[in-house]
Amino acid sequence: MSHQDSKQFQDTVLDPEAWKLSARALIEAAALLKPSVEKFWQDVKTGAGWNDEGVAIYFMLCSFALENLLKARLVKQQQLEIKKAFTSGLGLPKMFKDHDLYRLTCKVGLDALAAEEESLFHRLTRSAVW
């Protein structure tokens, strides 16, 4: 990776708005699959079958979007620490390699939300890592 590419990557990682834009794009992509999700549930109700491929991708995209929103908040809260990690040559800080939505929600200070939605966050995390 060239110095310019590395700098551009660092600037993107340090920009909460870039994380939010990515989340928005993922949500828009997930929305395109909503008819597939609705069809899946209709098929389950009528006993017509169990083709959950579209549902799995829908939840994966939703999980990625939520992860990006949480990381936007993380960047906003810890921008100086993240910048230090980059400038010290350590590369991408370890906190960005964590994809556990429950842990990320706690890490950004949303402990009450994490406790309330713990089960959902664990299920969404599993959707993201299949």
Question: Layout of SSEs?
Answer:
Blueprint lengths: L2 H11 L2 H17 L1 H13 L6 H35 L13 H7 L3 H6 L1 H11 L2
Helix pairs in contact: 2-4, 4-5, 4-7
Protein architecture, described:
The protein has one domain (3-128). Helices cover 77% and strands 0% of the residues. It has seven helices and no strands. The mean pLDDT is 90.
Annotation, overall tally of beta strands: 0
Estimated share of beta-strand residues: under 5%
Could you report the average pLDDT, rounded to the nearest whole number?
Answer: 90
End-to-end gap: 28 Å
**Residue ranges: pLDDT <50 for 5 or more in a row?**
none
Shape label:
elongated
**Assembly annotation:** single chain
SSE order, one letter for each helix or strand: HHHHHHH
Cα-atom Rg, whole angstroms? 17 Å
What is the count of distinct domains?
A: 1
Structural class: mainly alpha
